[in-house]
Design goal:
The structure is a homodimer.
Chain A (H helix, E strand, L loop, with lengths): L14 E2 L12 H13 L15 H15 L8 E4 L2 H12 L5 E6 L3 H10 L3 E8 L2 E2 L1 H8 L6 E4 L13 H14 L2 E5 L24 E6 L11 E4 L2 H8 L2 H6 L4 H12 L2 H27 L4 E2 L8 E6 L5 H10 L2 E2 L1 E2 L12 E5 L5 H17 L2
Parallel strand pairs in A: 1-12, 3-4, 3-6, 6-7, 7-8
Antiparallel strand pairs in A: 2-9, 4-5, 8-9, 10-11, 11-14, 13-14
Helix pairs in contact in A: 1-9, 2-9, 3-4, 5-6, 10-12
């Protein structure tokens, strides 16, 4: 989610909605300070030693319990393999499941750095599949399957990056049926799933992990702190053991022993739950503030749907608008966003843009969208 | 270094010299507890946020200063890219520099889990190159180059795993000249370099990083704590920036922001230096104790050289001895080791075995080698 090219100096009065990061001021400093002290006070040295490749057992139990409540359904700890974040999990899956030249399906648009992991780091053939206001279209997947034989489909089903949209339950079922029929995997990046602002989303792909057909990626980056580099893959217990038996995981004794030992205390003591509840309350206010500001300052010059969770608004402007060019004008007005083509595997969607509402407090959101409105005014 | 198959229950009175891990009792609990508290007391939330892809700037400066003193020569922070440990660095290099089927040269014997990363995780063609009592033989490399065109040569030049041997300066120069002439890279796993027990070893390959021809892997696993999953690659500043610009590194905002922020305090305050000095003193006593016990209980039934640093003794027995079969007899006597074939890319070296002297205190070392002597007695 970090991207240098969209990061600007905040002290320079810039408001850059292109930054897809939590607000520095909201990061759980007090909580992590407390759980670190508590974990060290337990007195053993296990947190400093090599761990079990699949991940610390007590941590996996605590995480499974937390996820079972969050997902409203059972998550067996045997299905969890601990990673150093969702990006590293994607990298692990590409290493262990693909070869250069293999085809993977990606949503159009999708998370721009996942596309780089696929296309540049692993030299995969990333085939874009169109989405509509409800996310991936199963018919479009079916159509693409007549021409391609993908190793996996990469989807961000809930509060998608960049669109904020959520795939309905029925489409999830259709995709699973297609995956079964055409023998490909579904890699579901579910890092925003727990970040709803009211109504819970449809059941996660994590619930289809048992068969090994779906792999669900989770992370503490959005619900606790990205610097921790801590996440998980949920898949069949057998596949989780296979991943853990790879040389690269086995060699390090698991992918994040120390940090997972600290976060375990936050899970067991309820600190993680309380912190996430606070985030949800705060983000709900921010999303409403941005929506109101967009109505006021952008109005009918773009369309969007109100995100029900996650980090992002996705604005669709007039077809003739080039948001990459618009970004230059925006920079002069000290405001920023992520242009649509950055989220496209084929450099498309030039009339769209992504805005993150998580990074700034409400006064900055209102001021930033006011500036954005002026940028739109200036190009009329 | 962790390997489940060689780990036994210590409570069951087993002494397993196959475990290549630090002694739990030596892990820096008090130091890490203190630096965690100090880092949180600094009050900012930077340690919890996404970091810079190449690694936290203050941490890289502190690490460069520490390495400059340890290596007795300048280490520019621009040449350092922070990783989540040497294993993850190896994985990163394989992803970014190789394709399945590419050839890499490995020492025979070598670190058994690196072999799995190459052969199984990345499906590389690992070609073994013979070593002698001074490590890699440049003539053997030259000979192998007549038949192969490697992407890189993987070497553990100092206090090698598993042999404990150190490559002399002249051979290092010869290898670098060969790499230049035949256009391959040298990936030097220098994780034991700072763990000398008296005389410093020859200059590290890190000093040849400037050209980008050599890449030096370092880690805190052997000098501080393996559970931290914190290491670095030293290479040319340009290559370090290239690695940092990959999707998989950029996406996470660096590979270990939180832990590097803690360890930075240990570097700046001298805690890391003092801890390492203590480790060296302790390991020097252990290596001497194991050497004395080997002379007493094994005698002329094996040959070995006294390690001048690192973790390991390498025993060469009679050609007719099968150390894999011997391990079964050893298990009955509650003692363990790593059989030679586990360290071979071609399942060879069946008459050799690796003993780790770092994991146990002196009384256990003496008792374990006494048991090993009895196992040797029993098969005469």
């Amino acid at each position: 989610m970090y991207d240098r090219s969209t990061q600007v100096d905040r002290s320079a009065d810039s408001i850059n909605f292109g930054i897809g990061q939590p607000d520095f001021a909201l990061l759980p400093h007090a909580l992590m300070r407390r759980v670190a002290a508590e974990r060290f006070a337990e007195g053993d040295t296990e947190l400093l030693n090599y761990g079990f490749p699949q991940g610390d057992g007590r941590f996996r139990w605590a995480l499974a319990d937390f996820l079972s409540r969050g997902y409203c359904g059972p998550v067996p700890p045997q299905q969890l393999m601990i990673t150093a974040g969702a990006s590293q999990a994607l990298n692990l899956l590409c290493t262990l499941l693909t070869r250069p030249g293999d085809t993977v399906f990606v949503e159009e648009p999708s998370y721009f750095l996942a596309l780089r992991i696929f296309q540049e780091d692993h030299r995969l053939n990333a085939v874009p599949v169109p989405t509509d206001e409800h996310g991936l279209e199963p018919a479009a997947v079916k159509e693409a399957l007549t021409r391609h034989n993908p190793t996996f489909l990469y989807t961000i089903p809930t509060y998608q990056n960049p669109t904020g949209r959520t795939l309905p339950h029925s489409r999830r079922q259709e995709l699973l049926a297609l995956a079964e029929k055409h023998d490909f995997l579904i890699v579901a990046d579910e890092v925003y799933h727990l970040l709803d602002f009211g109504t819970p989303p449809p059941a996660p792909f994590a619930f289809a992990a048992d068969s090994g057909r779906a792999l669900s990626l989770g992370s503490f980056s959005k619900i606790l702190a990205p610097g921790l580099r801590l996440g998980w893959v949920q898949t069949s217990a057998q596949r989780a053991r296979q991943f853990a038996a790879s040389g690269l995981v086995d060699s390090g004794g698991g992918l994040n022993q120390f940090t997972s030992n600290l976060v375990r205390v936050a899970l067991e003591g309820g600190g993680q739950r309380d912190y996430l509840d606070g985030l949800r309350r705060e983000y709900r206010q921010r999303v409403q503030a941005m929506d109101a500001a967009l109505h006021k300052h952008i109005g009918d010059r773009a369309t969007w749907t109100l995100p029900r969770g996650g980090f992002f608004f996705w604005l669709t402007c007039a077809e003739s608008l080039d948001t990459t060019a618009l970004l230059a004008a925006a920079a002069s007005a000290n405001v920023g966003f992520l242009p649509g083509p950055r989220c496209s595997s084929v450099n498309g969607l030039s009339h769209c843009l992504r805005l993150c509402f998580a990074h700034y407090a409400i006064p900055e959101i209102e001021e930033g969208i006011r500036r954005l409105g002026q940028v739109f005014d200036s190009i009329q």
